[in-house]
Structures are given as C-alpha cells and as structure tokens.
Specification:
The complex is a heterodimer of chains A (203) and B (134). Chain A is an alpha+beta fold. Helix content of chain A is 48%, strand content 8%. Chain B is of the alpha+beta class and 134 residues long. The chains are: A alpha+beta (203), B alpha+beta (134).
Chain lengths: 203, 134
C-alpha cells in the first residue's frame, strides 16, 4: 500500500493526483474509465447536476449553501453563540439535511486539502456522489462551529445520518475493513464496490 | 512511515525534531503509555517555511485502546494534544492500534498528498497571506 512517489505530488486534483489518492486508499478504482484517473460520464453528470443545484441555491439566497441552510441566523461575526452559521442549531440543521454530510476544505469538484480529497475519493469509490459538502474555507464561523459541535479539532468531518463518524483516517479505515459498505447500506445506499465484487465473482 | 521519523519506542527524550515534535511525543507518552510510538513531521510536504511544525502524523500503539472503537481512540489522542491542536498543530493524522493489532499488521498509512489548503485559496483569490489554520 505504501507508494513512495505520490508524496511528492502536490498537484491539486489532476488525474495523477486522484490516481495517487486512490492508490493510497489501497483500492482499485472501478468507477468510470479503465486505468483510473478519469471520471465516467455518469459520475461527471451526477456531479454537474449536484453542482448546478448548489449553485442555484446559492443564487437564490445570495450566500454559500451552508449559510442558506442556516437561514434565520444573523450570520454576523462573533462565532457560534447567537444563531450564526457556526451555532449549534445551524450545524445541527446541516448535519441532518442529508444522510451523508461532509465538512471539508474546498469542494468535491476541487478539494483544497489532501485529507478532504481523500474523503471525496473514498466516497466516489463507493459510488456516493449525492451528498452535502460544506466548504469551511468559505465560512470561518462554520469552520469553528463544526469543531465545537463534534468536539473534534480537524477538518474534514464526515456525518452519516446526522451522526459524526470521524475524519479522513477513520473513513479510510472503515473503507478498508468493510464497515463503510455496511454503514451505507443502513442508510439505504448501495455501495458501488458491492457491484464491483459481484462482477468479479461472476467471472 | 514516510517522512522524517522523530521517535521510536523506548521513551528516550531525544533531541530529534523540533519543539512541537518533542511535545507531541512527551504528551502522548504520558497520556497513553504506548508500547510503540512514531511521530512524523509532514510539514515540509505542505509548503510551510523551513522549521514550521504544523502537520504531523502519529502512530500510537497502546493497550489503552483495547475495546475502543476508532473514534474513541482518536479522541484519546486528541485529548492528550488538546493545547497543541488549539494552537500550532494544524493537521494530525492518527493511527491508533492495540499491541496485538500492531503485531499482526505493522504498517501504517502515510499522509495523503497535499493539495494546498487555504494557502492555495488565497493565492488564487484575495492575495492575503494567512497561516494555515484548522
């Protein structure tokens, strides 16, 4: 699993960087084109639809998606106390708005942190493209608020069914030991890797 | 683990690594009595100036983790490093195993590649220099 060269890659979400992260995660990518590194048309379409929806929400509210969901909060600075986007109430709303919610740096289309990218890539390997992703770099109040809410000091943070499951290290572990497939199943999400295994069994 | 290894089992208070590395090693040793401890400074891979201690990975092998799910194990590590995580420690990769688990699988995942973080955001946009933050 240890791949020496990839540590030197600092190239953003280039195909090479994505391939490196998949190698780091220790799983062969079966999504989309053979040989890894490119997204299938279906996956790209799914992300575009999601991105368009997010953009529409932003346009309507004039604010980032995370703040739009926390409507009613004053969003005046001052951190998590009085109903801003980092308040307990606002965060609670965000973690419950979808079975899979991720707080990260950057976006699934363009992660800005290797750990956040790893979460995105792992979800992608399981065929999970429909989820809520919040870019904490866009919202300092949320950035602090999510850490206070989960009592967890770092980003990314993954919530399944409103419950905090961990960051990148834990998600990777769950992916490698099969727990993630199980947890997704409980949410009614069928992991793409189950289909991959089935195909292999048939051969 | 890749990257400069700054500590090995045995609890020797060596001079290897910067002050934060030594603090991390000391606090984890005191809190968790590890049978094996590795502290890896990943900061050079994240574009900080030389000597910046911001991104670390730790491998902690301890009987204290027995019976605890990963989330609770990581929380124990975070608790030991609460002050550092509230301060200069920007990112912390954690591998937490019991001695039995470590014996059956003595490998630890390396850190994922850096993608620039908030520094990259700022280079694209405002042009305002800010230290990497959690």
């Amino acid at each position: 699993m240890l791949i020496g060269g990839f540590l030197r890659l600092c190239g953003g979400s280039s195909p090479a960087a994505r391939r490196a992260v998949r190698q780091w995660a220790g799983v062969r990518a079966r999504c989309g084109g053979a040989g890894g590194g490119t997204m299938s048309a279906a996956v790209r379409t799914g992300w575009r639809i999601g991105a368009a929806a997010a953009a529409a929400l932003r346009g309507r509210a004039g604010r980032p998606l995370s703040q739009a969901a926390g409507e009613g909060g004053g969003a005046e600075g001052g951190g998590g106390g009085g109903g801003g986007s980092g308040s307990r109430e606002a965060v609670e709303r965000l973690v419950r708005e979808h079975p899979v919610v991720v707080f990260m740096k950057g976006s699934p289309a363009q992660p800005l942190c290797g750990f956040s990218n790893a979460v995105v890539q792992i979800l992608r390997l399981h065929g999970v493209e429909d989820y809520r992703a919040h870019d904490v770099l866009q919202d300092p109040d949320l950035r602090q608020g999510i850490k206070d809410y989960s009592n967890w000091p770092t980003i990314p943070q993954v919530y399944l069914n409103g419950e905090f499951v961990g960051g990148c290290d834990i998600l990777l572990q769950m992916h490698q030991n099969g727990d993630l497939v199980e947890e997704l199943k409980k949410l009614g999400i069928r992991s793409a890797l189950l289909d991959a295994e089935k195909d292999q069994e048939k051969k | 683990m890749r990257g400069p290894l700054l500590a090995a089992a045995g609890g020797a208070m060596g001079g290897a690594g910067g002050p934060l590395a030594r603090t991390i090693r000391a606090k984890l040793t005191a809190a968790l009595q590890p049978t094996h401890l590795e502290v890896r400074d990943d900061s050079p891979q994240h574009g900080g100036p030389p000597g910046a201690e911001t991104h670390f990975g730790v491998l902690v092998v301890s009987v204290r983790f027995a019976g605890l799910p990963p989330l609770q194990r990581h929380r124990l590590v975070h608790e030991a490093l609460r002050a550092e995580l509230a301060g200069p420690l920007h990112a912390l990769q954690v591998t937490a195993r019991t001695p039995e688990q470590w014996q059956s699988d003595p490998r630890a995942p390396p850190a994922p590649p850096c993608l620039g973080g908030s520094k990259r955001e700022q280079r694209r946009g405002a042009g305002e220099e800010a230290p990497g933050q959690q």
